[in-house]
């Protein structure tokens, strides 16, 4: 299991039957592959689709069926397509139960930076700002560091996506929950020590006496 699969399998355990869920581009889209058997979850893409699943098998691709990041998807029986305005009305109206987003940085207050790096071309923010504000729960699915630099930092060095803090942070090392008191370490990945997590995190962590091992969604 590589880092991205560990993250996706752990995030899948946050899904609940009947949820409307938005998966951000990149790593978060992997969560669709690990929806627990027998669970009915409606996936929403901000380009105007509800009711899609993981990428299709080779030979079954439909170039007209893509997610917001341009990745190929499959529509499920009962799927609905609509315009982008309707899609964002669902998001801004608070109808999305959970959004899973990637991140460039998270600060000690649980605020997310996800949409631009100063000095580099950015095509636009996409739906990130709306999702962080509008979704009932926001889970960040990201790798703990980038080029050996921690992504969980004391203060953001990049423009924030929203002033609202996220609900949960899931990395290949840990599950961390932003709280009023700070970032609370909730779980550690299999084979990872608390010392490893603290050493890989720039922000201060609230560490319990016992940190349980991270469960992963199984096939």
Automatic annotation (TrEMBL):
Which keywords appear in this protein's UniProt record, sorted alphabetically? Transferase
Q: Cross-referenced Pfam families, in alphabetical order?
A: CoA_trans
| InterPro entries named among the record's database cross-references | 3-oxoacid_CoA-transf_B, CoA_trans_fam_I, NagB/RpiA_transferase-like
Q: Does the keyword Transferase apply?
A: yes
The UniProt record lists the keyword Transferase: yes
From which residue to which does the signal peptide run? none
Please state which protein family the record places this protein in.
Belongs to the 3-oxoacid CoA-transferase subunit B family.
Protein's UniProt name? 3-oxoacid CoA-transferase subunit B
